[in-house]
Amino acid sequence: TPTIGVLALQGDVREHLTALASVGARAVTVRRPDELALVDGLVLPGGESTTIDKLLRIFELRDPLRARIKESLPVYGSCAGMILLADRILDGTADQQTIGGMDVVVRRNAFGRQVDSFETDLDVVGVSDGGAVRTAFIRAPWIEEAGRDVEVLSRIPAVDTQGRAVAAAGRIVAARQGPLLATAFHPEITGDTRVHRLFVSMVAGG
Ligand code: GLN
């Protein structure tokens, strides 16, 4: 059984712990470098990326985490976690930094104020064979550019379920680069655990 940490500085930590446990992982919180050293994979939860960035530096986790990512630690970033995994961000605050690792440009709060939050069903490569994934977007980012080594797993479709055109059509909202997985949405709050199942299989060596 792989041990998967959830970075527990801020954000929806409990939901990820529950989702990981429900797909058979040993899920533990990570707040200190010695806790990070013990995990086989790590989830960066949704929350507020600027706050998590500051706390990573205060808790002296930023450099150890970067080092483990360089050594191919599997990491799954959801929403704010996706921002943290991005090599470059747009619309960050002036002093905001990322951990980086994934060759993408992510735009923070990309979906705009009028649609701050919504739920939708999405096809996600390697996940949605049994039907579309139920996803929640909460002041979500999107991936604006993806490098050559990044596999796009999901895009916003051109029309919604009522057949209306969607402004964000074609935007990338899930991607993978080697052991790094990122989603703009939160699968952990809709009860759909298939993204977590994918991540657990990545940690197990898949
Ligand atoms: N808007 C948040 C940020 O910039 C992300 C929101 C979320 O994680 N649900 O960090």
Question: Can you tell me about this structure?
Answer:
It is a single chain. This protein has 206 residues and is of the alpha/beta class. It has one domain (3-203): 3-Layer(aba) Sandwich (Rossmann fold). It has six helices and twelve strands. It has a seven-stranded mixed β-sheet. A three-stranded mixed β-sheet has the order 5-6-9. Strands 7-8 form a two-stranded antiparallel ribbon. The longest helix has 10 residues, at 13-22. It is globular and about 50 Å long. The two termini are 14 Å apart. The protein binds glutamine. Glutamine is lined by residues 46-49, 79-80, 83, 108-109, 138-139. This is Pyridoxal 5'-phosphate synthase subunit PdxT. The active site is at residues 79, 186, 188. One of its GO terms (molecular function) is pyridoxal 5'-phosphate synthase (glutamine hydrolysing) activity. It catalyses: L-glutamine + H2O = L-glutamate + NH4(+); aldehydo-D-ribose 5-phosphate + D-glyceraldehyde 3-phosphate + L-glutamine = pyridoxal 5'-phosphate + L-glutamate + phosphate + 3 H2O + H(+). Its EC number is 4.3.3.6, 3.5.1.2.
Write a concise synopsis of the structure shown.
The protein has 206 residues and is an alpha/beta fold.
Write the layout of secondary structure elements.
Layout: E1 3-7, H1 13-22, E2 26-30, H2 33-36, E3 41-44, H3 49-58, H4 62-70, E4 75-78, H5 80-85, E5 86-90, E6 102-107, E7 117-122, E8 133-138, E9 142-146, E10 151-155, E11 172-177, E12 180-183, H6 194-203
Parallel strand pairs: 1-2, 1-3, 3-4, 4-12, 5-6
Antiparallel strand pairs: 6-9, 7-8, 10-11, 11-12
The chain binds glutamine.
